[in-house]
């Protein structure tokens, strides 16, 4: 099913191949509709009794009787999908071992795709002149100019000019504004790449120049520099160059980092906001963006990972900011890593790819070492301020009473900062009040009934919550096991419990908790972050969401409550994650003109990872990590695939796992090894039993083909699922 170089246009009635989003696994033959259609056209076709959406994917298979073929119903009102996007989807499906229709769904996830061309009444400049100009009227005409000839709805125009709609109506009556029917979806305001940016530091200028020289074709860059070193400013220069060349730019950010702060910054630089693509965007704005990127009516898109599937007309630059962020990996439906797929899409589009991070993933670091990516380093923070000074607080020598997590040293440091009117951040990567609820009489722990997981107490919600499936239960007063009354006790800290301790220690301080579950929407969370950044809190308590790309100018002290939390995990990337997260969080301290400090509470101050965090010797850390992984042929020096089997009954799931492990000839042919089956670390989710296998192969081995041959002969029982996760990031 390679996108073909066959005919580019199908005359009415000629057979053509259509890929639909239905799970049929192959391209279906249809006759081209009235008026014919282009290769790549989005179409509606009959399928059984239904009408479904598809894309003209290639020539017809031809094995079917032409006279019996059904006809494409109509071509949809959207620019045809370009060959490079079809190629991208095909390669992504091959790489991730996913059915192509599933992948096509990612590229057609837009509301109203099947709507006909819809118009609405918009206002344009008219021929007449008003008898008199008022201030308000002048503002309206100026606002219209700003949109460069694109029409605006009356309410939009009134809003843009900051006047009431009656002023706008008056101008229509006077003939200064004319109403015309125009397509519903209008182009986005033009960004002006000719506007001057800031004067760049030497480091920044060097990086920007290198990117500019590469503009003519594909290339991937690793832009590395601590938080505040000016990476954003550098890649905005690359955006400017890209826009000047008349091409489109895409900036990917982890969902939560998509802040108003960033949009305002782009507006500052280019005179208009970029188009936004993420879960918080309204349906009609999504539809507008999707159509406009296809027609060239959007120059720059800022989006979450799914923006990678937008139908760009001429994509010239992809930036993946915070490239190490684990949220780039999608772990449901199609298992893909947006960071890696950005590199693929860049290569197919002849576009530049910039991976930016303060703490790059070992994968990207190794690719730069190997010369596949070009590394650009920003070595100092922009401006005069230095990196925060880092120190460990040895929990073995601090007298911490039971159920207290803030050591006397940390307490003194926070008090000192508050005295100076500055902000402090206490970082604990645990949501909720307490991770365990235990009966003091019998030791029973409350677990989820559907999952192999303990219930986490959330005092804010007044419920126990399962972090795997989201199930909730009342907080019990009586032990469900032994029946003892009032003996249930929370064990261990979560951010809500830390808040309690904080309020007790500093009763006069304004305390804000940032945890993803405390907010109804991403929008509400972002609003809270902005309020805090503006000085709306003295002490911030946060989970890992505070690590991501927010600027807190008044923050000068970061206290890491438990640096040991992630170190004990058996996860391949445990050390890397702790290193990245702790360095990122520490980097939040001391931006503007005040020096920052980071205090790390740990019981293992001599642990190599903690030492690397404190010394800041990143190269040494990566060298050591790389050496350890290379010795074991682990990624990025070897390849992994996770196989997750699940089903309502454990026995058949395990039997399938055993059958796979026994019949591994296809894997042995490429010298790959299979480990397992073993119960997954979370052996049950939502009542489904889970069993894992792990396949390990050499770096260059043709892993996908072998996995396909290996799994294909096995039939799945009722309600059983087999999921293959290529390059797994998590192993739960
Ligand atoms: P990073 O993306 O590496 O965290 P930023 O690009 O956000 O760094 O820069 C940090 C701060 O320094 C921002 O407030 C930014 O506006 C400012 N800054 C960066 N480069 C320059 C420059 N060349 N001139 C003036 N201000 C700059
Ligand atoms: Zn559960």
UniProtKB/TrEMBL annotation:
Q: Does the keyword Protein biosynthesis apply?
A: no
Q: Where does Zn(2+) 2 bind?
A: 448, 451, 466, 469
Instruction: Please name the source species.
Output: Roseinatronobacter ekhonensis
Which family is it part of? Answer: Belongs to the helicase family. PriA subfamily.
Q: How does it assemble?
A: Component of the replication restart primosome.
**EC number(s) per entry:** 5.6.2.4
List the Gene3D superfamilies: P-loop containing nucleotide triphosphate hydrolases, PriA, 3(prime) DNA-binding domain
What domain of life does the UniProt record list for this protein's source?
A: Bacteria
| Catalytic activity, reaction form | ATP + H2O = ADP + phosphate + H(+); Couples ATP hydrolysis with the unwinding of duplex DNA by translocating in the 3'-5' direction
One Pfam short name: PriA_3primeBD
**Which segments constitute the Helicase ATP-binding domain?**
212-378
Q: Tell me the InterPro entries matching this sequence.
A: DEAD/DEAH_box_helicase_dom (IPR011545), Helicase_ATP-bd (IPR014001), Helicase_C-like (IPR001650), P-loop_NTPase (IPR027417), PriA (IPR005259), PriA_3primeBD (IPR041222), PriA_3primeBD_sf (IPR042115), PriA_C (IPR041236)
Cofactor(s) recorded for this entry are: Zn(2+)
Q: What does this protein do?
A: Initiates the restart of stalled replication forks, which reloads the replicative helicase on sites other than the origin of replication. Recognizes and binds to abandoned replication forks and remodels them to uncover a helicase loading site. Promotes assembly of the primosome at these replication forks.
Q: Per the record's keyword annotation, is Transit peptide included, yes or no?
A: no
**Cofactor binding comment, as recorded:** Binds 2 zinc ions per subunit.
Any Gene Ontology biological process: DNA replication, synthesis of primer
The entry lists its GO molecular-function terms as: 3'-5' DNA helicase activity; ATP binding; ATP hydrolysis activity; DNA binding; zinc ion binding
Query: For Zn(2+) 1, which residues are the binding ones?
Result: 439, 442, 479, 482
Output the SMART domains linked to this UniProt entry: DEXDc, HELICc
The alphabetized UniProt keywords are: ATP-binding, DNA replication, DNA-binding, Helicase, Hydrolase, Isomerase, Metal-binding, Nucleotide-binding, Primosome, Zinc
Name-wise, this protein is Replication restart protein PriA
